[in-house]
Amino acid sequence: MDLTIFTQSTIPLTILGLLIFVYALFSISRSRENKTTPRKQPPEAGGAWPVMGHLHLLGGPEPAHITLGNMADKYGPIFTIRLGGHQTLIVNSWEIAKECFTVNDRTFASRPKLVAFEVMGYNFGMMGVNPYGAHWRYVRKVATLELLSNHRLEMLKHVREFEVRSAMKDTYDRWLGWNNINSGQHREEAKPLSCEMKNWFGEITSNLVFRMVVGKRFAETQGKDTIQKTLRDWFDLIGSFVISDALPYLRWLDLGGQERAMRKTAKDLDQFIQFWLDEHRQNRDDAGSGEAKPKHGDFMDVLVFSVDEAEMIDGHDADSTIKATCLVSVPFPYF
């Protein structure tokens, strides 16, 4: 009885000792490997705090690019900083940057896994934010061939011409109405007619891109004011700084409530995109299963006919792939 109790009490100590022994062997082997094949590491900037790293320096009174420029003058063209728990490589030389994006392009092809990209980017499903892999290669191939190719742009030339002519006609009609109203007055006394060019180009861009992507003008879309507000919130949140990106173990606290706002915005925006996707799927079903891929259809039409509904690409289903790829094409200037 006493022997059994003694054995049971020594088991945890034995396991702990074994783990320490294995860790020691691993550390010794790594140190020997580093001595045999030494690799010069870039210097790390000074002034880091234990947990925050260099975040307090980037959030100081000077802009971040000025702070990084001063570090580059002190530590050279390549160095590292710590953003919370993440070590980050800083490059300030076009020769090194060229080598990163040519010789070692696959190493630097991935993207950081930020909370905004996960919550509002369909779990890293958007082409501009998803990590390098099978899904990124597939989406990039489809977007390059079916949206950004010269052949596709030439086929949709009539859309661009219509939107530009429509915008010019609306501007001319406004001027004509203003001219008729003030025809009997001195022009010096008449209220001047103004045209905000930022909004003018923004409306052309939004109508053009929405027609190319989802097949309808943004100005004629139902609930466009709500969509515009949701997209503005989406752009604001996806570019905001979230503490859990630097300190992942604090994510459960949701300091600042940003993740909660991201989930609400993602849900609201997904309802609109899902409605357009259902419309396109219904149009495809009405056209018949034997219908070929549309030649003059919008981008969502092409994706609906191209992406297999039952196919899973690196953990992403067809619906999320289509919606994420269309969302990344939304025009920023107007929103």
Main beta sheet, described? Answer: 2 strands, antiparallel
Structural class: mainly alpha
Number of domains: 2
Kindly provide the radius of gyration, computed on alpha-carbon positions and rounded to a whole number of angstroms: 28 Å
Q: Judging from the principal axes of the Cα atoms, what is the shape?
A: globular
Mean pLDDT across the residues is: 81
- Distance between the amino and carboxyl termini: 76 Å
Question: Would you list the SSEs in sequence order as H and E?
Answer: HHHEEHHHHHHHHHHH
Which residue ranges are poorly predicted, with pLDDT under 50 across at least 5 consecutive positions? 1-7
GO molecular function: heme binding; iron ion binding; monooxygenase activity; oxidoreductase activity, acting on paired donors, with incorporation or reduction of molecular oxygen
Keywords: Heme, Iron, Membrane, Metal-binding, Monooxygenase, Oxidoreductase, Transmembrane, Transmembrane helix
Subcellular location: Membrane
Transmembrane segments: 6-26
Please outline the helices and strands.
Blueprint: H1 2-36, H2 55-58, H3 64-75, E1 78-83, E2 86-91, H4 94-102, H5 115-120, H6 134-146, H7 150-155, H8 157-181, H9 197-214, H10 224-238, H11 243-246, H12 258-287, H13 299-306, H14 318-327
Antiparallel strand pairs: 1-2
Organism: Acacia crassicarpa
Keywords: Heme, Iron, Membrane, Metal-binding, Monooxygenase, Oxidoreductase, Transmembrane, Transmembrane helix
Subcellular location: Membrane
Summarize the structure in words:
It holds the Pfam family p450. It is found in: Membrane. This is Cytochrome P450. InterPro entries: Cyt_P450 (IPR001128), Cyt_P450_E_grp-I (IPR002401), Cyt_P450_sf (IPR036396), Plant_Cytochrome_P450_Monoox (IPR050651). GO terms for molecular function: heme binding; iron ion binding; monooxygenase activity; oxidoreductase activity, acting on paired donors, with incorporation or reduction of molecular oxygen. By secondary structure, this protein is mainly α. The protein folds into two domains: 67 residues, no CATH class; 172 residues, no CATH class. The protein has 14 helices and two strands; from the N terminus they run αααββααααααααααα. Helix 8 runs antiparallel to helix 9 and helix 12 packs across helix 14.
